[in-house]
Amino acid sequence: MLEKELVAASTEPLILSLLAKGESYGYELIQEIKRLSGEEIRWTDGMLYPVLHRMEESGWITARWVEMENGRKRKYYSIREDGHQALKKKRAQWTLISTVLGGLWRGQHV
Predict the structure, then answer these.
(1) I want to staple 60 with a disulfide (CB 3.0 to 4.6 A). Which of 2, 18, 55, 73 is the partner?
(2) Quick check: 81 pLDDT over 90?
(3) Could you tell me the pTM of the whole model?
């Protein structure tokens, strides 16, 4: 399992990256990150939804309620233009960090 701080720091760029591929709902985001990380990243509802709400308030994402066939409602999230701009900045930041670490670790036995 990854350290809590690293998971927290990567949550927004991960959410924005997933939503850049298309609309999704909370549980689906949780399952997709779990799958993509080989079950190393495990988000909980209590961690994810406050981040989604904060991102919605920031104007990065938008949400809409959809009534399912069983009568229950599901909240779908999609990325907005401001979210694409935020993702672009976050991608550049993470690329820089990855490049620096890669350079430091190249040739080292970690």
Answers:
(1) 55
(2) yes
(3) 0.91
